[in-house]
Write a structure and sequence with these properties.
Elements (H helix, E strand, L loop, with lengths): L1 H11 L4 H78 L5 E9 L7 E4 L12 E4 L3 E9 L4 E5 L6 E6 L5 E5 L6 E7 L9 E4 L11 E9 L6 E8 L8 E5 L11
Antiparallel strand pairs: 1-2, 1-12, 2-5, 3-4, 3-12, 4-5, 6-7, 6-9, 7-8, 8-11, 9-10, 10-11
């Protein structure tokens, strides 16, 4: 204790300052080095909580963004479906003398050789083979070719086995619209004397009793054929977007009939 009092007394009168200065000079560089080493670690420890909090906030924002994007996609899909149904309702109203049933396309024939789609309506809904199928703009899609209890298959007008009695709306010239392996339509048996040109509208004629009359099939895109030939070759573009079908109307009140050969 006496030594401590002595040091205090010496310090008070400045006799220990040389020792203090020497100690400061000796340990000051070491202290600076230790601070330089410890400072990043201290900053890391101090900022760890902030970084973790920011990471959690970013994850929460990412989740909210994904949820909002999913909700936007759902609303867009609902809006598209609503627009499609509204346009089909217009078709239904235009077929005031016919009863129809809305359906959705649920599958497609994977083979490129056939043009067939499946719909989510079947025998239990009153769907029968031979019924005509239309879509927006009162355009012909095809015919129900096979039915099951809960679904049915529709052969499109572009299928190689499809043939529709038709006529040109402008000139009333008759013909038969047939499908092909190239997924295109051609109007066959059109007389050389028929007035036909690109842009003319082709509709069902009702002849033969297979389809109701007046359903739109497509638009003439080309006319060829020499005068010495009996028939003209007419190419037709379908007005229905057959490759992007989603919703359709089945005409359930029209009963196809097959006329016997005289």
């Amino acid at each position: 204790m006496g030594a401590g009092l002595l040091l205090i007394a010496l310090s008070g009168i400045g006799l220990t300052r040389p020792v203090e200065d020497a100690s400061y000079t000796l340990f000051s560089p070491l202290e600076a080095v230790l601070k330089a080493i410890a400072s990043p670690l201290a900053d890391t420890v101090a900022n760890y909580g902030d970084v973790r909090s920011l990471s959690q906030q970013n994850e929460a924002l990412r989740s909210d963004n994904e949820r909002l994007n999913a909700e936007i996609a759902r609303l867009r899909e609902e809006a598209i479906r609503r627009e499609q149904l509204e346009r089909l309702l217009e078709v239904k109203n235009s077929l005031a003398n016919q009863e129809t049933l809305a359906a959705s396309v649920v599958a497609r024939e994977p083979s490129n050789l056939r043009q067939v789609v499946a719909i989510n309506r079947g025998r239990s809904d009153g769907i029968k083979t031979g019924m005509s199928v239309v879509t927006e703009g009162n355009t012909l899609v095809g015919t129900v070719s096979k039915t099951e209890d809960d679904h049915a298959w529709v052969t499109l007008v572009t299928d190689v086995d499809s043939a529709v009695s038709s006529l040109l709306l402008e000139s009333r010239a008759p013909g038969v619209v047939a499908g092909g392996y190239n997924r295109r339509l051609s109007m066959e048996f059109v007389s050389q004397d028929a007035a036909v040109k690109a842009g003319d509208t082709v509709v069902t004629s009702g002849l033969g009793g297979t389809y109701p009359p007046g359903l739109v099939i497509g638009r003439v895109t080309g006319v060829t054929g020499h005068r010495q030939e009996i028939f003209r070759r007419v190419t037709v573009e379908p007005l229905a977007s057959l490759s992007r079908l989603e919703t359709i109307l089945v005409i359930t009140s029209f009963t196809p009939s097959k006329l016997s050969v005289p």
